[in-house]
Amino acid sequence: TGFVYPVVAHAVWSPQGFLNAEAVTPMWGVGALDFAGSLVVHLTGGSTALIATYLLGPRRGRFYDHRGTPLQTPKEFPGHSVALQMLGTFILWFGWYGFNTGSAITITGPYKDQVVSLVAVNTTLAAASACVAAMSANYIYDERKTGEGT
């Protein structure tokens, strides 16, 4: 993304950028408003991941043999490290606190402290809700697959 990110950042953040809402002729007459850089980060990361996925294709040896012939059934591959998944989740969650509340600190006005506090609470509730939803979906999936919930 060393080439792509600066191009997208210029298009959104620069007054001459075609995606900037304050440009002389913004895209579709509207442009894009970017709160704390989230548009640029997610647009660049998402489109880069989509293109990379297309270019790389499916896992080698999982769906096709070494000659490119499709396999009857996909090969199983070993599971991933649950400990590293949890560590990554906590690092990401910790980063959200810094990013979300840090972005809200730039707000001015008499209710600045309440807004920053609300952002921190919403960050906690969003992560907790995602955890409950993932556990519920996993429970339902396992119950349907095995016939008994654990």
Question: Which secondary structure elements does this structure contain, and how are they paired or packed?
Answer:
Blueprint: H1 4-13, H2 38-56, H3 82-104, H4 112-146
Helix pairs in contact: 1-2, 3-4
SSE order:
HHHH
Main β-sheet, in a few words? none
Query: Strand percentage, roughly?
Result: under 5%
What is the average of the pLDDT values? 83
- Gap between N and C termini, in Å? 43 Å
Shape, per Cα inertia axes = flat
Give the % helix. Answer: 55-70%
Strand tally: 0
- Annotation field: number of helices: 4
Structural class: mainly alpha
Radius of gyration: 22 Å
- Uncertain regions spanning at least 5 consecutive residues: none
Structural summary, described in words:
The chain has 150 residues and is mostly helical. It has four helices and no strands. Helix 1 runs antiparallel to helix 2 and helix 3 runs antiparallel to helix 4. The protein is flat. The mean pLDDT is 83.
Q: How would you concisely characterize the structure shown here?
A:
With 150 residues, this protein is mainly α. The chain has helices spanning 4-13, 38-56, 82-104, 112-146.
